[in-house]
Amino acid sequence: MKTEVVVIGGGPSGLLLSQLLNKAGVATVVLERSSREHVLSRIRAGILEWGTVELLREAGVGARMDAEGYPHDGTYLTDAELMVHIDFKALTGKQVMVYGQTEVTHDLYDAQDAMGTTVIHGVEDVTIHDLDASEAAVEYTLNGERHRITCAYVAGCDGFHGVSRETIPEEKRREFERVYPFGWLGILSRTPPVHDELIYSNSPHGFALASMRNENLVRYYVQVPLTDKVEDWSDERFWTEFKRRIPSEAAARLVTGPSIEKSIAPLRSFVSEPLRWGRLFLVGDAAHIVPPTGAKGLNLAVSDVYYLHEALIAALKSGQSAGIDGYSKRALARIWKAMRFSWQMTTMLHRFEGEDSFAEEMRRATLRHLADSETARKDLAENYVGLPF
Known about the structure:
Helices cover 39% and strands 30% of the residues. The chain is of the alpha+beta class and 389 residues long. Strand 15 and strand 16 form a beta hairpin. The longest helix is centred in the last third of the chain and has 28 residues, at 322-349. 44% of the residues are buried.
């Protein structure tokens, strides 16, 4: 098989990149190790930056998002004593969109099917070759048979545990990591949200987040030790703990119900440089991981896609190499700013085991500074709704 770009990874970043390239007349083949059903069963982020919203529209996959998504003008940060409203619309003129990553992936699969894109599921033992030659190659096993695709470029959208980053020689990679000593226990429940905007709560009992997918589907989280397991948490235990971590006025409105999904996600900050190695480019979680506190994971992958699709189209359609040569530097500049914001939000809102009273007072002082300073609220709002691509 031969194509222009092989996209390794059939999640939202890989599918969006393929969609944008296909719309520009660039041929792609998408390889995914999991079944489509498994990809669409993953419960992930639900907050889209406005730049992400606009790029999905440009890609031709925004119709259902616009019909069913929920634009939000702001969010709340709170502790046991104070609720601070961050008014995105007033401070930046922008909003965010509540629309689940699973729904984005559904829309992208539908669009790729309509275009007739080759998306191959169930691939194993993927290897990448000839990155310094005139053509690259990707090999994989499917149903016991070995296959080979030659291409001009390879986009590694295969996540933290994928083969793409590991293809770059270890001595040529610089990796930066911070692992946080806690995780987020999250549940989905078909119940009405406690508030019409998200609430990030820093309580004496630990962090909690009240999020949502729609008017009758919530996504709630509580901070838990990394030693906890999902089976340790009954629904009753979760609701009791969540209720005591959110503000009393929200707790009074809380409607509980059975969970339809429950999982624990560890938190880490991770960046691998460079994002380009010959004809290979890293995108999204293959190159960087952020804590979910600032709602940056999917959105950061989308900004990578934005930079890379422009660069690949220029290289393949016009022979211009400036974009692909500058991709890594351009994307990393935005990645590190998002890393800073996510780290700042995580530090501000979570309790760390063994911390002293100074750390607690710093969190309290930060929240009060946000309450008193429009400049501070604007800085947070600008980062939350998304820095320009």
